[in-house]
Amino acid sequence: MNSQKEIKEIVRQKYSEIAFQNRGVNAASCCGAGECSIETANIMTDDYSILEAYNPDADLCLGCGLPTQFVQIKKGDVVFDLGSGAGNDAFIARSELGETGKVIGIDFTPAMIEKARQNAEKLGYHNVEFKTASGCC
Q1: Which residues contact 48 (CB under 8 A, 6 or more apart)?
Q2: What CATH number is associated with residue 80?
Q3: Domains in the chain, number
Q4: Which of 19, 44, 121, 135 has the fewest CB atoms nearer than 10 Å to its CB?
Q5: Over the stretch 72-108, which tens digit does the pLDDT of each residue have?
Q6: Which distant-in-sequence residues (6+ apart) come within 8 Å of 68 by Cβ?
Q7: How far is residue 129 from each of residues 42, 67, 89, 114, measured CA to CA in Å?
Q8: Whole domain around residue 78: which residue ranges?
């Protein structure tokens, strides 16, 4: 049996691969793992593309619904996005909190943080930052 440290490293490696693979591979699975049946019924497949702040480069098809629709974000809030991936939820949250608020995305996969930072830079978002959760996991 693998130790906790080994399991975390396996997860980190898998998400590192996902960060820069073809989005279609992720979309063909139940949670982007690439090995689930494409026929799996998934109630968490809300359509981000209908939202004004949607960015397809940040959508790796790994999400679990639209959490920003339920947390009542207000202008000027500070939002933490745990497991931020490529930044999709962080960018949606940013559109709701405006220029005076801030989003801090946290992920334990350096490749995901790199992709999220690239996406934020392309979008010119200066009130969204991404940090690696190195000590917690």
Answers
A1: 54, 59, 63, 66, 88, 92
A2: 3.40.50
A3: 1
A4: 135
A5: 889 999 999 988 888 888 998 998 888 899 999 999 8
A6: 89, 92, 93, 96
A7: 30, 19, 13, 11
A8: 4-132
